[in-house]
Design goal:
- By secondary structure, the protein is an all-beta fold.
- It is 0% helix and 39% strand.
- The protein has strands at 4-11, 31-43, 61-64, 73-76, 83-88.
- The strands form two sheets. A three-stranded antiparallel sheet has the order 1-2-5, with no helix packed on it.
């Protein structure tokens, strides 16, 4: 999925520059990947009764954390579409 950040950890060939014509016919291309992070993304809107229509909140900061580490990642919500993304471990 596009929200997964993965990297190859074991591969016999350079997977970024792989050309199957250069690989011997009886060889099999295999690779092991490791999940590094997951991207949490979404949109948020201010739906307060004072707004006529829901609008993206300007300058809203979102924080991702745990009880022992309150701030692991943070981001600011984009004011045009209310879009945000956080990189989670």
């Amino acid at each position: 999925p596009t929200s997964w950040l993965v990297t190859p950890t074991v591969a016999l060939y350079d997977l970024d520059n792989l050309r199957f014509n250069d690989i011997p016919e009886k060889h099999v291309v295999t690779a092991q990947f490791e999940l590094q992070n997951i991207i949490l993304e979404g949109n948020c809107y201010d739906v307060s009764p004072f707004q006529r229509m829901p609008t993206p909140p300007r300058g809203l900061e979102l924080v991702l954390g745990t009880p022992t580490q309150p701030i692991l990642q943070d981001t600011i919500v984009m004011s045009n579409f209310g879009y945000f993304q956080l990189k989670a471990n």
